[in-house]
Amino acid sequence: MNNGFHLRTMQPADREAISRLIFHSTNQYYESIGREPIFQGEELDPAIMFDVYQTLDPNQGLVAVDNKTDGIIGLCFVHPRETHFSLGIMNVHPDHFGRGVARTLLSRIIEMAMTENKPVRLVSSCLNLDSYSLYTRAGFIPFCTFQDMFLEVPENGLTFDPPNDLIVRPGRLDDVEGMVAIEREVAGITRRNDYDYFLRNDKGFWHVSVVESNGQLDGFLISCGSQASNMLGPGVARTEDQAIALIYAELNQHAGHTPVFLVPVNCGELVQQLYKWGARNCEMHVAQSYGLAQQPAGIIMPTFLPESG
Ligand SMILES: CC(C)(COP(=O)(O)OP(=O)(O)OC[C@H]1O[C@@H](n2cnc3c(N)ncnc32)[C@H](O)[C@@H]1OP(=O)(O)O)[C@@H](O)C(=O)NCCC(=O)NCCS
Prior knowledge:
By secondary structure, this protein is of the alpha+beta class. 31% of the residues lie in helices and 30% in strands. A hairpin with a 5-residue loop joins strand 2 and strand 3.
């Protein structure tokens, strides 16, 4: 019990309340800084996040409940993984900003991770000083900066040639171990069940590309084409050439759409290639970690469904 609210784990019956809270809290924030709302469709579109996480991390998320009204006033998704905890979208109802709801949710997640001696990772927006400050004030340290880019893919796919002759192919179920190995090498983290989930593609809106040489995976890139999120990522690659080849392949999975993707700002060759293709910037994000985070030994490309700091 804390400042008139308490925390509990998310339950299946919370689905609609959580979706509405994500929709209104996020949109109101972006409108308050003069930007387009993030969610342009229906209030229940963000329920896809709840559905994906109930499959990947059943009942792991946390909600803050007001003691008087019993309504949900805050939420945060939590993704415990082999190597780390990842923290998902954090939302507080605008009527309850500044009550310490987010700080309390965050402290509980840090405690959970510390019990298992694991770092906590997230990706936060550089445009959103409230959330940037929430995390850095709690002890998180930024370790990688990204520019969010978008590219309109024509109805018939990209009109220019592939950027190089690297071998990119769709991922297969037997790629899981290769994906584990390459993400461990490049990012210092693994999430075996997630790769398996994307490759199985039960929802029908995931796609996985892998780049390989000499029978070994050099990288992978996943993409999501759901109603609430059309993004490329998560992905990793050893080199910028491999990342470019993966992005080309995954963009072509989204013909007639305009997916968003995050690339590290210090990958000059990659960024210049994307500009040449016509990509534009729409936001900036930083990966932050509470506890040790390996400096990327290659290219990391995070996303927001699932959150993948
Ligand atoms: C960002 C958000 C989650 C914060 O929720 P909140 O419950 O109002 O935050 P809290 O009351 O717990 O306060 C957050 C902390 O950040 C600190 N903080 C906020 N802005 C700050 C700034 N500019 N500099 C330093 N510290 C700052 C606050 O002082 C507070 O720390 P303290 O209690 O130790 O003083 C909320 O504004 C929100 O839901 N926004 C819309 C959705 C969103 O942007 N989500 C985050 C991205 S996924």
